[in-house]
Write a structure and sequence with these properties.
By secondary structure, the chain is α+β, with helices and mostly antiparallel strands. It has helices at residues 63-77, 84-93, 96-103, 107-115, and strands spanning 5-9, 15-20, 27-31, 122-127, 132-143, 149-153, 157-160, 187-188. The protein has one domain. Helix 3 packs antiparallel against helix 4 (107-115). 10% of the residues are buried.
Length: 189
Amino acid sequence: MVPCHYIVADRAGDSFIYENSTGRNVQHVIDGGGRPQIVTNFQLHRHPDLAAMPDGPLTPQTQAFWRYRILADRLAAHQGPFTAESATQANACANIQRLLEAAAPGAGGSGIAATMSARTLWHTIYNQHALTAQTSFYLGETTAQDGTRAERRSPYLHFTLAQPEPPPAGRACPRSVPPSGCQRSRRIT
């Protein structure tokens, strides 16, 4: 089974990363501490420290860490709030196929990228204040006549959540947020 991870965030900027293990029998929660969070194709709970992540040349084994570092550097250098366009540009800079082709131009990078199973299956940009999401999905690969390969992705699909209606008079809203005194667990078994 493939382990998955998700970033869950609210309008106030609080977030956590939820990851399940390869066997899906252990779950991990990594609190964002009020800072933006990043996920690429590795289990962050196994490599929580950026400085201690595997390093070295760009290879299929190190590509997820390279992509994470690129996104972390973009995030650190960015001034002001992110827009949908700046988030899309940051994500494009961490595209594995583009990185491998830049590292080994010509058929070398394309050949390595073509053999990799690591792909961003979907990329979503959320606007928590407008209650919108834009998602692009991985659709497969195309091969040009010269042998180069390229990802096929859907255009960004736009979704909007409707504003919730107030409850009928006399009925209280269900609590969807835990009391402020609750502790967040770092590991759920």
